What we know:
By secondary structure, the protein is α+β, with helices and mostly antiparallel strands. The chain has helices at 74-86, 175-185, 193-205, and strands spanning 2-3, 12-25, 28-38, 42-48, 61-64, 67-73, 107-111, 115-122, 125-129, 133-136, 140-146, 152-159, 164-171.
Amino acid sequence: MALPAGAQKIKTFCAAAGLKEDITFGKSQLKVLALQVKETESAKVDIKSEASHGKMLEGLQETGMGFGVLSGPTHEVVASLMAYIAGKNVEKHKPETFLSVAREGAVKCNIKAVNDGFLFFHKVGLLFVQKFLFIPKGELKSIDVTGTTGRTFDLQVITKSGEKHDFSMIAKEENQRCVSRVLTCWVLVLTCWVSVYLACLCLSLC
Length: 206
């Protein structure tokens, strides 16, 4: 997925894979493996063709003598390898499914008040990039609008296991876009969302 360029105007991409079981790293429990690279970076990997065991590795070019080459933008090469190893298809984020006021594929916000980054409304779940956090769609229980001010609002996400995640300082201009995206994609217990959406609709009609 493409990350908003921000002030540096450097487009970067992120390839991420959710883990079936958490990996313990020091005192942290890792739930996602992610790689963030610049748009201009490329990679080339030589692979033994017979290692595919009859399965097709997306983008692999046969070079003969039982070998093949996988090359292209680094994020695409890594995503293809991760999907192949996991036996899954690559789920690419389509920016046109959600566009922020700034015409980006994510909204800028904070998590735990200090880690600023971007929140993606992916069809397979919520992904926050900078401090990587992935919440699969199947684990979502509710999304609340909280901490509304004259300029920003917060989203509080609660999972079925009871975990709570607060995404704060989202520009109020993004409110209706976020509501529409969630209502379109997911059937959830959307406490507060419907009332806020109706309030915005009444204001626009008035």
